[in-house]
């Protein structure tokens, strides 16, 4: 399996300018919304509560000749960004778009694309409409296997099982919100969702730290990646979230998530040294800083009462 490094030009692959210019992304993604209406992360949600409560499921747009993947630079869609950075040829066969290409999160056009009004969503060349980050990642990895330099599947059955377990812990107990209605939160939201009630924030913070300890226990000591010496789906999924949290450590209620977790710290340092990984983290950091910088700084331990 090749792990050759790529130039910064390769890292950008072929994402639209809205992802390369974060200021442009911030303004385009919020079309029709004031800054106070914008919600992001976990399930990549943005929009007004009344719009999110709609139960109308629109038929998908007509299929195109290429697969289309609609993303924003948050941590769950970040796995697709990272997988594409590790596999530059995907830029030749997939059209990467943002909600701005469909009128913004609040528009009727985007509702036709995404039944949950969430990102990411994929419109396949065969006419399927797929959502949920891991479903889309699995589809892309399967369909374009001959083009991949890093298939991220893991070299052994044990490595693949451990990778799948780490992905499951992340998606269910760290980043996941299993309700798309307003005022339901994921554990990771403790540091940026000002509306979260204090007792819930305290409980979710406790559980988030527990899950990070569990991740620490599951990482193989020898590294340098999650399950050994090859990049796996666990790395692709965990990295955008861990890097996002650590990048906000100075201002965040959670603080440094690598402190007291030496394997996680070593793994993160190794991934950060790879420009393909760090390039994705920098896009996510810019997005967080743009939309939630004040919220992150404003949530303190006093909010856990």
How is this structure best described in words?
With 305 residues, the chain is mostly helical. It folds into two domains: 8-147, Glutaredoxin (3-Layer(aba) Sandwich), CATH 3.40.30.10; 157-304, Up-down Bundle (Glutathione S-transferase Yfyf (Class Pi), Chain A, domain 2). The protein is built from 13 helices and four strands. It has helices at 8-11, 17-20, 22-29, 49-52, 75-86, 90-93, 108-113, 133-143, 157-174, 198-218, 233-247, 262-272, 275-298, and strands at residues 67-70, 94-97, 121-123, 129-131. It has a four-stranded mixed beta sheet. Helix 5 (75-86) packs parallel to helix 8 (133-143). It is globular and about 55 Å long.
- Give the terminus-to-terminus CA distance: 50 Å
Order of helices and strands: HHHHEHHEHEEHHHHHH
Number of strands: 4
How many domain modules? 2
Number of helices: 13
As a percent range, the share of strand residues is: under 5%
Pfam families: GST_C_2 (PF13410)
Region (Disordered): 40-63
Domain GST C-terminal: 156-292
Protein name: GST C-terminal domain-containing protein
Could you name the key traits of this structure?
mainly alpha; disordered N terminus; 305 residues; 47% helix; Glutaredoxin; single chain; 4-stranded mixed beta sheet; Glutathione S-transferase Yfyf (Class Pi), Chain A, domain 2; 2 domains; 4 strands
Short description:
The chain is mainly alpha-helical. The protein has helices at residues 8-11, 17-20, 22-29, 49-52, 75-86, 90-93, 108-113, 133-143, 157-174, 198-218, 233-247, 262-272, 275-298; strands at residues 67-70, 94-97, 121-123, 129-131. The protein has 2 domains: 8-147, 3-Layer(aba) Sandwich (Glutaredoxin); 157-304, Glutathione S-transferase Yfyf (Class Pi), Chain A, domain 2.
